[in-house]
């Protein structure tokens, strides 16, 4: 997984030297995402399925560790973006059929890479249309302390194709709204995956932006054995450096 992360970061930071010569607009954004997890995890057929719901007030309680980084590049009408996220969340829930209390942990790492075209550029907004992939690595474990030994875990890796839209809407001289959404899977890796991100952004100077918003990311994976149908949601804060 470390190799994939390094490769993604290398793509995000593609040549600062040739960037100027090719008129690249490059943005790198580390961000804090207060993500909690909700959904169902079935590690193996016949094992405990952990079912849980998560409210916004429980996000920080659930989150054990997280790291997030996104990048965006544009040259003329051609656009590229990448995102790496990793989070570990713990959650108490129940085994639906038996009604037993259970405890689960979900660790997700995902790398999204996409390329596309600026379909519209005007004073009121810009619109980018993109296609790409999202690679997932998910580890999940469900345990039921009431029944000793009733526990199971899953470790899966797969890659999904995605289609995406991104828009930037100026609100004033220093304020803007950025919205991004993608949808994918289509049975190629997972059944479905998708995300929605919306941020309000304040331009501090020519190179620095501060952002606040919300992100919702989900995946529905089922290969007939392990099954993971989970969503990761929560507020985010980002710091963008543009060069």
Question: If you had to describe this structure to a student in words, what would you say it looks like?
Answer:
By secondary structure, the protein is mainly beta. The protein contains 3 helices and 12 strands, in the order ααβββαβββββββββ. A 10-stranded antiparallel beta barrel has the order 1-4-5-6-7-8-9-10-11-12. Strand 9 (175-185) and strand 10 form a beta hairpin. The two termini are 28 Å apart. Residues 12-21 have low confidence and may be disordered.
Concise summary:
The chain has helices at 2-12, 16-21, 59-62; strands at residues 25-33, 36-42, 50-52, 63-75, 78-95, 100-121, 126-143, 151-170, 175-185, 192-203, 208-222, 227-242. It is mainly beta.
Topology, pairings included?
Layout: H1 2-12, H2 16-21, E1 25-33, E2 36-42, E3 50-52, H3 59-62, E4 63-75, E5 78-95, E6 100-121, E7 126-143, E8 151-170, E9 175-185, E10 192-203, E11 208-222, E12 227-242
Antiparallel strand pairs: 1-4, 1-12, 2-3, 2-12, 4-5, 5-6, 6-7, 7-8, 8-9, 9-10, 10-11, 11-12
